[in-house]
Amino acid sequence: MIACFDIGGSAIKAALARSPADIEILGDTPTPRHDFDAFADLLDEAIARGGLPDGAPAALSITGVVDPASGAIKAANILCIDGRPLGADLSRRLGRPVLVANDADCFALAEAIEGAGAGHRVVFGAILGTGVGGGLVIDGRLLQGAGGFAGEWGHGPIAATRAGTPPADLPRWPCGCGQTGCVDTVGGARGLERLHRHLHGLERSSREIADGWLGGDAAATRTIDVWTDLVADPLALVVNIVGADVVPVGGGLGKVRPLIERLDAAVRARILRRASTPLVVPAQCRLEPGLIGAAILALRDNADAAA
Fold this sequence. Notes:
This protein is an alpha/beta fold. The chain has helices at about 35-50, 85-95, 105-115, 185, 190-200, 205-215, 220-240, 255-270, 290-305; strands spanning about 1-5, 10-20, 20-30, 60, 65, 75, 100, 120-130, 130-140, 140, 160-165, 170, 245-250, 280. The model has no long low-confidence stretch (mean pLDDT about 95).
């Protein structure tokens, strides 16, 4: 049995896992973002509440990039852990092995083992949430690239400056990563809202835009047309490069099934492989995939150590 946590900038969700399919939720609490002692104490209290045996491991799915070489984490929205070798620091503090992984990677692994990617060899998990992220799983194993950046298709200055039918002219918006013109600036929920504002001068939430599109609103329909072009091109490139069998989509926009069906049709029209069945599909894990992915990583690590 292991403890697993899904850690975001707002809340920490805790659970106990006996297997990827047997996860007991322990609840959630606000994230201490500025006090490392409070952060570590919160994890320790959850572990004690769950009755985890001494020395049993813990695993964290976390918003941020983890360097697999140094263990250092970049987590700009949780300042008390930013720059720390978090796994090592927490292992000393909690007296047990602690594994730390990026939340998009955990999502991809959860979907590859327990979700839409089960039974497929190459799974690219795409996040279309507030922003754009992803993770790559091959033969059931997470690919962790140099610096921890594998799967980050949302970053790189490749967003088109003309998209839609007829084409709309678009600026190259600055991205939080420091570059300009990243897919992240147009592909997630905030990007969809930015596009709508640019095209129509209207402030609408991503939910309102999606609902308007589904209801036949002309402005929302135009925004979704442009958005589909902007996201389908780079996602098709990813599929061509990694040879993905399936692309489960998570995040808020991933829950809008007709939108994912539209994106799937656009991606399949752009890739080299002729796919007659859906390729880009909604995520299937009903439990928090970060918890499932963290559990898979820690349970495997524990089994490898015992072998």
